[in-house]
Amino acid sequence: KLAELYYKVQVNEQIGIAPVVQYLIDPLGDSSRDDVVALGLRSLISF
């Protein structure tokens, strides 16, 4: 199971950033494993 939170911010016409938070419940389908939180940052730069 996966829950994801995503939000895009357009800084200006050339730059956009998007922080991402993912929460994985029962990774690999194994309920004995701890849940996992993954943080990321997506970016787009146009020339």
TrEMBL record:
The protein, known as: Carbohydrate porin
Coiled coil spans: none
Domain of life (superkingdom): Bacteria
Pfam families: OprB
Gene3D superfamilies found in the cross-reference section: Carbohydrate-selective porin OprB
InterPro entries: Carb-sel_porin_OprB (IPR007049), OprB_sf (IPR038673)
Family per similarity comment: Belongs to the OprB family.
